[in-house]
Write a structure and sequence with these properties.
- Pfam families: Ring_hydroxyl_A.
- By secondary structure, the protein is of the alpha+beta class.
- It has one domain: Alpha-Beta Complex (Naphthalene 1,2-dioxygenase Alpha Subunit, Chain A, domain 1).
- The chain has nine helices and ten strands.
- The strands form two sheets. A seven-stranded antiparallel sheet has the order 4-10-9-8-7-6-5.
- A hairpin with a 4-residue loop joins strand 2 and strand 3.
- The chain is globular and about 60 Å long.
- The two termini are about 25 Å apart.
- Bound molecules: fe (ii) ion (FE2).
- Fe (ii) ion binds next to helix 5.
- Fe (ii) ion (FE2) binds next to helix 5.
Length: about 280
């Protein structure tokens, strides 16, 4: 059992002191997906982001980072452009954006995104489209590719960008969400952007489908967070095949937080006290 990955303990999902560490260890030095360039077409409509450096992929995706100390884009997301270059994102117009708060830690949402064990039970409509028995996740240095059917690697593009952004091209359109952390560890803000090249009617049909999946996840995350905060769930062992995406990103968080701790020479007793 030694070689199996364990989950982060529940305290990591409920600690505001840990969030302060994550701000510096995880969010500051990452590349965040802002969206395809089509998000920024109307000069009169401000789209607010803080950008210290930015990068645009050949296929039209725009990324930003908040620190000059972040690894160069090509190193941070090595191999990513081979995947994103399959889609011309400049051909997908921005159709709608929505944003709302959820009562869960940002990692609770990413936990759910990074595995599909819950899909069959939680997402009956999605599971009809992509039967979860084939589902697999391939992890790279700072991103994961989800493959719904390994026999059809070109059907749909599902990507997770460490730490908080996702990109989902399927069902004729594309959605992207960011799970924004907050100083209250049990609260996050969800920001969704929707892109589609079809008619209004086609877009609305697509929108209804993807919103259904998002609402199902939202409910699951709020319930999971309740259990984390009440002490119902502590920590456990991750399934090495079906939860390798969760293991990957949680290990990245754990490593980044511990490295910051060592760099700042903070006594181990402090780490023990907040976790
Ligand atoms: Fe889900």
């Amino acid at each position: 059992m030694e070689s199996l990955s364990r989950t982060l303990p529940a305290s990591w999902f409920c600690s505001s002191a840990l969030y302060q560490l994550e701000r510096r260890a995880v969010f500051l030095k990452a590349w965040h997906l802002l969206g395809p360039v089509t998000r920024f077409q109307n000069r009169n409509t401000p789209v607010l982001y803080e950008i210290a450096q930015s990068h645009m992929t050949p296929s039209g995706l725009l990324f930003a980072t908040l620190s000059m100390d972040t690894l160069p884009f090509e190193e941070y997301f090595a191999g990513l452009e081979n995947l994103t270059n399959r889609v011309d994102f400049t051909k997908l117009p921005h159709r709608r954006s929505i944003s709302y708060e959820g009562r869960f830690n940002w990692k609770t949402m990413i936990d759910g995104f990074q595995e599909c064990l819950h899909c069959q039970y939680t997402h009956p409509t999605f599971s009809k489209y992509y039967p979860p028995k084939f589902y697999s996740v391939t992890n790279h240095l700072n991103f994961s590719q989800h493959i719904a059917d390994p026999c059809k690697p070109d059907d749909g593009l599902f990507l997770y960008f460490f730490p908080i952004c996702t990109l989902n091209v399927y069902g004729g359109g594309m959605s992207s969400f960011r799970t924004l952390p907050s100083p209250i560890p049990g609260v996050s803000r969800m920001e969704f952007d929707y892109y589609h090249a079809g008619t209004d009617e086609e877009f609305e049909e697509y929108f209804k489908f993807v919103r259904q999946v998002a609402l199902e996840d939202f409910e699951l995350c709020e319930k999971a967070q309740e259990n984390l905060q009440r002490g119902v769930y502590g920590e456990g062992i991750l399934n090495p095949k079906k939860e390798n995406g969760v293991a990957f990103y949680q290990q990245r968080v754990r490593k980044a937080v511990r490295e910051l701790f060592e760099k700042e020479n903070v006594p181990q007793s402090f780490l023990a006290s907040i976790l």
